[in-house]
Amino acid sequence: MWLFCSLISCFLTGGVALLPTPQNLTVLSTNMKHLLTWSPVAQPRETVSYSVEYQGEYESQYKIWIPSSQCSPTDRLECDVTDDIATTVPYNFRVRAMLGSQTSAWSTLEHPFNRNSTVLTPPRMKVTEHGLHLVIKLEDLGPQFEFLVVYSRMEPNATEHFKVVKSGGSPLHLGTMEPGAMYCVKAQARVNVIERHSAFSQTQCVEIQGESLPLALALVAFVGFMVVLMVVLLFIWKMGQLLRYSCCPSVVLPDTLKITSLSQKLIGCKQEEVDTCTVAPLSSEHLLGAWLLQHCK
Asked: Which residue, 64, 189, 178, is CA-closest to 121?
């Protein structure tokens, strides 16, 4: 029977044997990432490749099929068709097997795929405290996602605060909190182009440790102030010493110019001799004689 079917297949295809058609075409879509998968076409000791084509709403009106930008051809059993799906309309996909000059018939999705059926999962997040601030970091799910963050103090009937985060991947400060209090945070992912959102993530709670950091800062500031004060005082003392020796240097007299007790006695004696001398006026004749006597020697 199998031989009879093969002969009919060869006759219908002009003598060229067809490969088996890929089966079980399925689109697995999570968080706007779309992956087309299919079952392998088994060929012993041969590597089969596959060609993938898609058809959107516009292409279906004109019976046009476009090769996938990522998987034409591919030897894998899956194809990332995220970039091929640009709008929220039904898309159809088809796959065929290729081995040398042999090809299979096209296998088509049983039902067209629309990206609004993607499964949205709660975002992963990490909540920490920094000083008096709550800090949250959300996973980056892509440019089409934004996040709704809800946080509140952990107490009965606490007021919930809401914040819309446009993108993930970067730490975000939620605000100033009360020291010593416990705060809880949860988040959900939202995709506006398909008007859908995920469930909320598991609530994470952290305690704001607001006292230790100011105390440490005060201690560091005090130590720094003391160090600066000591440096300033040392600088002033050094400048005083420099100005003292530059403007008013101390002069050391040689021994010959120093007044000793002996020199004081001599000076006293000379002074007494001068005091005992009598001063008598000299006549002009005496002065002339003294001058001539001095110059004639």
From this structure: 189
> From CA 128, how far away is CA 204, in angstroms rounded?
9
Whole-number average pLDDT of the chain: 82
Residue whose token pair is 């021994």: 255
**Does the global pTM surpass 0.85?**
no
Instruction: Give alpha helix (H) positions in the chain.
Output: 2-12, 57-61, 212-247, 261-276, 284-296
Which run of H or E residues covers position 138? strand 133-138
Residue-wise pLDDT tens digits, 94-107: 999 999 889 999 99
**What's the whole-number mean pLDDT along residues 234-257?**
70
Per DSSP, 15 falls in state: T
Residue 145's nearest CA partner among 126, 129, 125, 128 is 125
10 Å CB burial of residue 226 (0-12, 13-18, 19+) is exposed
Q: Which amino acid is at 99?
A: L
Element (H, E) at 186: strand 182-191
Q: Give me the torsion for CA of 52, 58, 63, 69, rounded to 10°.
A: -20
